[in-house]
Amino acid sequence: MAIQRIVVQAPAKINLYLGVSLQRTLVGYHRLSTLMGTVGLYDQVTLEPSDRLSLICRPSVRTSMENNTASMAALFFAEALDRPADVAITLDKTIPAQAGLGGGSADAAAVLLGLCAAWGIDPFDPLVHGVAASVGADVPFFLTGGLALMGGAGDQLEETFSAVPFHAVLVRPGGVGVSTPRAYEAFDAHPEPAAPLEPLVDAVAAANVDAMAAACANNLEPAAFELLPATRQVAQFLSAQPGVLNALVTGSGSCVFGLCRDAGAADVAATEAARLGWWSRAVSSTPYGCRIVEDGWRALP
């Protein structure tokens, strides 16, 4: 007898470009432009029918179920559909928290995608995007993934791009990571101008990875360096590694990514970073956002 469940793969992301402004959206978030790309580092999100909403996270995290983006997504979606949030959620975490890799947002998108399949909702329904944006600014991006330019608070899709294969190394220093609200507070205290976006857009359109690396930029990076100086050390380390084209903080940190000339360079840089006691992974780009890899919700009568 089949197990009645849906399993969704939730990828990490890197911000190839992040340009934050001091202007605010109507709900108070900073206006920004960001070009994000999904990479092959995944959480696994499992959904099973239940008589109530529940959440298991492995390994466990300090966030309560009420404040976890995955359970929030289920609750908000159920409320929007005027139905019970009768689902048990299990998160098997690989993407580190407070790293700028979007793990929590990806998990929320994975829950929405899985519940669309379970409850018979078109995942492209504008209602789904609205719920995603209400959970978190990055959540809508993970419903489609790939390479995309986002605006607003990061929740508004402005442009998608054809897949550009690239290799990268991710390195996160030890410690508790960087709080996104604190990073934005530090930015407000000492704002940095955003770099031009057009060179990166042109490089992505041309599928030129060397030019992409040269055009990557993040004006939130100084805030991450201030809040966790070890991120600067990681960026300097990666910049000196053979085959690493550029190194940059992703999002608000604390993870630093390096675009690499090839997969071998990414593997070597990840190995060297691990020898220094840092968390590290060699990854490749993926053209997908969250994807259902097992659907047995309707397998039982």
Automatic annotation (TrEMBL):
Residues 70-146 form the GHMP kinase N-terminal domain. The active site is at residues 13, 138. Keywords: ATP-binding, Isoprene biosynthesis, Kinase, Nucleotide-binding, Transferase. It comes from the Bacteria. This is 4-diphosphocytidyl-2-C-methyl-D-erythritol kinase. It holds the Pfam family GHMP_kinases_N. GO terms for molecular function: 4-(cytidine 5'-diphospho)-2-C-methyl-D-erythritol kinase activity; ATP binding. The gene is ispE.
